[in-house]
Amino acid sequence: MVADDKLEKKVMPGWRKLAAWILILCGIVLFIGLFREVLLPFVVGLAVAYFLDPCADWLEHKKVPRWAAATIVLISFAFLFLMIIVLAFPLVQTQFKAAAEALPIYAEKVEGQLDSLLIFASETLGENDVQRIREAVGGQVGKGVEIFGGLIQKIFSGGVALVNISTFIFVTPIVAFYLLRDWDRLIRWLDDLVPRKALTPVRQQAALIDKTLAGFVRGQATVCLLLGLFYGIGLTLTGLQFGFIVGIISGVLAFIPYVGSIFGLVASVGLALIQFDSNWDIGAVALIFVVGQLLEGNVLTPKLVGDRIGLHPVWVIFSLFAGGALLGFLGMLLALPVAAAVGVLLRFAVAEYRKSQIYHGEDDSHHESGDPA
Length: 373
What we know:
By secondary structure, this protein is mostly helical.
């Protein structure tokens, strides 16, 4: 009976802590659900401040006041962002216009190649079998397009479309500046709210979450930029029309594991099959993505991201799709921080479970009485 009372005293505080954390989590989810239509500028501002905090810290260590460091970093970031847009926009606009004009011609070529393939298939399989295959493929493609289109519509209707662009442009820099200026103060304030008994494990897990998120977001963003430039310039040098657009989109999509390379390879080789008659030219286009994958896997990712992030590719893909389906563009922005936090906390929970009485099946009363376990 005494052992049961002691066990109950140990278990009850644990359940109270768990209930408290569950209530906090429910409050956060409720807050996001209620204000999701106006949160986008604030989330983007928070992301910018988090991304630029190391630069501001570096300037602060050089004896630059924090407000001045935040101002310098944000102005530099805005200038670099605008320069990229100014330099890249004319080329992207030209290629998009050319792609729109060439689309009917490409559609005719693809239709002609499909007709030739269907004629060959009908001679081999029979007209009825070909018709059934055509109906089945057409139905599946239609469903796929419908699902993909609905997801894209939901993403943007759940985020960008609900926020006035002018409000977004003016509010985001202000939010980013104040968060970047007060970042260390906010961290100290949050640290002061943590119960003192739980301070050490909370700090440890928060540091792991920050390391995971920083390693993935900052490192992977640099990888995406370099890959986009490599693919875009490489495809342009091969003479592939619209190669720059395909390369840049492939680099951006590289944020989602394997999606960028698969999209780029399929899209560029498909365009090459339509545009080029030489197998060497088609092979050169495919080779660019082979080299890009080798470069990413052996040089860029190990150097810029490393193996310390602890985010499995499947977990990243699921979190991005789940966030987009639930909260649109806002959900995609929140997906990676949430995925990083959940991953770290799950590993911590599993480690605690492996040390617990539930896992080992030990009786604490034996230890307390001096009896061997």
